[in-house]
Design brief:
homodimer; about 350 residues; 434 Repressor (Amino-terminal Domain); 3 domains; four-stranded parallel beta sheet; 12 strands; elongated; DNA-binding
Chain lengths: ~350, ~350
DNA sequence: TTGATCCACGTAAACGTTTAAGTACCACAA
DNA sequence: TTGTGGTACTTAAACGTTTACGTGGATCAA
């Protein structure tokens, strides 16, 4: 592989001169710079990132912690989309990304060790078990960190507005005349708890009395569990006129239960999802839901992280909230009479 | 950051001794080895991958070319799942992965240059425009390469059995009594052309005469375009009894058209997808489709690539075909009478 | 003429490893 | 005694960069 030494030899200059010419230093004459660039092209020189990293202590590599225990991997649209936009922004800024795992060189290591081994400039925690001590060790290390949907003290974070999102959804269906509103929420995490909080807040503001049976839990990303929960709701003596579902994917289980009961959407019952998954928008009618701004979440995570890497002193560890928006599909009817 | 030099000083040995101890060389006494490991733990030493790479010419980093022009990113389940299993297998073997792009250090470069800059040990082309000269430059470079769903001369490849898959689907619906079989295929790529070939082969073997109107194209990953194509099929004087769709996602457009026409699935019309997307299995009835073995595709791509990296002479550049399987959902009726 | 200034380049050390080759010491056989 | 062989290290060079500092020559003012 051709190195700077070869270029230097070819051009009859020192290695330092080649380095400076390629890095745009000012104390190189236009003539020799030209000569060097020509030689680089002709001989097919490519810089060696490892050597550069060794010398400069900068790898231009960002770590991503993306551990999902259920092993849906990139199949979860919310994370996939956020990850994608994180990647795009990183690349735009000249950074590559590396997934952090615990298998460095055939031996089991901690996430932090992996990050240190690769000398990552920074780390984004996109998806992980935040209770895991190994995750916390990484977050509270000396490496610049940004977390998604979880806020840590003195660490940067981007947060989707889960509480406001659910609040807005309740207000929306209320505005269309619904009073008997049920909520099938996902099993407890920081995210679902925030949504639940939003639900309560809206109910309080609207002075809505929601019976206990209207609030049920279902397993995250498990349509079958949602199917059962929906069935129970429909079997109530006084069933809800509108059901909020934990997320667009799980909702499919609910849809099956509703179809099976011979009910039409939205004529007989209204439904609302959460996420803005593509597929649910291809259905007829498209699902009314809350679309999280994944594009912005990923982009911001990357740019905040890079900011903290490149300007450690000026960039404070903020917690930024990204707002989503209502996707008004066709699954919420307008009720004229109030019960 | 603590380096080998610090460890050496602490233990009163040379740097070479530390290196050899850590790398499991045999000419180190058990005593000093112990001392060194203790110092490593106490002082918190982590090896520097850049320095190691510089010296050994091995980065234990695999490149992934994953360029989708439509920018669905990881949202496409087939690629997402394959990528995920590729990643898992790579990590199991001690490799990290790096996405190849064209933005190295703020300047526009070729894919090959990026790969060379990072000194990637090998590259997997998961998703890309294979006509692109920059992609071909990468594939025909000196770097070990494996491609997905495209075979190149003297290069390793893993291929999903698109032809057999579609052939099997036709045989399946034929076996259930269908004769008027339509196929809405995706716009031409190597993949869709193979599927179309499978369709023709099955028709030939079964001596099926398919009218021209039964074969229509629709835009890849565009439910709306599939919606229109389906509508046209349903409006024919003699509509098909079964429609094969290009893929599970696009099929949703077809589903809407069918629902809109007031037809029931599978009582009034049968449908078949391709891919085995999770969501389509959550519908009721679950879609009958061909499930590509993404887990195996990704795993094999990684292990073949690593094999070629670690044993360049013994590992020949094979083309391996991975077979999928029929997912028998509930969307194909059994026809008793033949038309 | 001298001395200051500037330009364009060279020198050399350093980053943290790996590894071929060398060496000091000891044990043991002849 | 000498020679041989093995063990457990050390030495030193090398990988490809970057960068602080040095330097020789040209220019120019006094």
């Amino acid at each position: 592989m051709v190195s700077m030494k070869d270029i230097a030899q070819e051009c009859g200059v020192s290695v330092a001169t080649v380095s400076k010419a390629l890095n745009g230093q000012q104390d190189i004459s236009e003539q020799t710079r030209q000569r060097i660039f020509e030689a680089v092209k002709e001989m097919g020189y490519t810089a060696n990132s490892a050597a550069r990293a060794l010398k400069t202590n900068r790898t231009y590599n960002l770590g991503i912690l993306f551990i999902d225990l259920q092993n849906h991997g990139f199949m979860h649209e919310y994370f996939a989309a956020t990850l994608n936009s994180f990647r795009i922004e990183s690349e735009r800024c000249g950074y590559d990304i590396t997934f952090i795992n615990s298998n460095v060189g055939h031996q089991n290591t901690s996430y932090l060790q992996h990050a240190m081994y690769r000398r990552l400039d920074g780390v984004a925690v996109i998806c992980a078990d935040y209770q895991d001590p190994l995750v916390q060790e990484l977050i509270y290390s000396d490496i610049p960190v940004v977390t998604l949907d979880h806020a840590f003290y003195n660490r940067a974070a981007v947060l989707s507005d889960n509480m406001n999102g659910l609040e807005a959804l309740v207000h929306y269906v209320y505005g269309r005349g619904h009073r008997r509103i049920a909520y099938i929420y996902g099993n407890p995490t920081a995210v679902t708890e925030n949504r639940l909080r939003g639900f309560y807040r809206a109910c309080e503001a609207l002075e809505l009395k929601i019976p206990d049976e209207y609030l049920t839990e279902c397993e995250y990303h498990e349509p079958a569990s949602c199917y059962r929960a929906t069935k129970q709701l429909l079997a109530l003596p006084e069933p809800p006129t509108c059901i909020l579902f934990s997320d667009d994917y799980t909702w499919l289980g609910g849809m099956n239960a509703i179809r099976e009961a011979g009910l039409r959407i939205p004529e007989d019952i209204s439904v609302v999802g959460y996420d803005g998954v593509h597929l649910a928008q291809a259905l007829n009618p498209p699902l009314t839901t809350w679309q999280q701004n994944t594009e912005e979440l990923g982009r911001l995570a990357a740019s905040m992280l890079i900011e903290r890497i490149e300007h450690p002193r000026t960039a404070a560890p903020e917690h930024v909230v990204v707002t989503g928006r209502l996707l008004e599909g066709g699954t919420v009817s307008r009720l004229d009479a109030e019960p």
